[in-house]
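hey so i finally got around to running the thing on that chain from the lab meeting. sorry it took forever, my laptop kept dying and i had to restart like 3 times. anyway pasting the input first so we r on the same page abt which one it is
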Amino acid sequence: MANKNKLQRFAENLTFQNLFQYRYEEVIRGFPLKGKWHEKFFKNKGDIVVEMGCGKGEYTVGLARKFPDKNFIGVDIKGARMWRGLKTTREEDLKNVAFIRTRIELIPFYFDTDEVSEIWITFPDPQIKAIKEKKRLTSPRFLSRYKQFLRPGGLIHLKTDALLLYDYTLEVIEQGGHKLLYADEDIYGSGLDNEVTQIQTFYEKKWLEYDTPIKYIKFSLNPDFIPEKLFYGKPK
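ok and heres what got predicted. didnt touch it at all, straight out
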């Protein structure tokens, strides 16, 4: 039954006009909306905010409801999960939301220089094993990708239950000379009251049931940060 539901969702995904999913070969030849999101899709000049690893799209949709003057794009490789966010945007007729189904390693192919104003990274896999450090979404390797399209002074938000990832990200910020704007080991315990606490994902609610402290970091990239030279091989 689970596989049947997944196939049904994949089929319905094809009907959503705000979902973009391309084969690797198509993407590297040139994504048609790169540098043209404002003009060709959103048809406004509002800031573009991207959520990496959006899952069901709860944060992307929640932010879109809260800030109708901005545009939001959720990115994930799991199409069956993303279906929920797509379904909600259709039901609520949210015009300021889009989704991209792709590997986050390929995200620079989808946006042009300075096209994105903010990035949200919500409850990503902390990649606990040291050997997988480069796969952490706040690693220097991924910051190199974001630098290619995040405008100068653009914000990066990390929300996580993982102390390892929280501490690691603070270290990356310090070593890279990036600008730390806010850090909190327990956003609910500290009384923070804004979109960081008012929008909660399914997994966040689960962690809160176990009294797990939710951590949050906001920072911007060092303008002198030199991105790593990245090789975009064909995904396995």
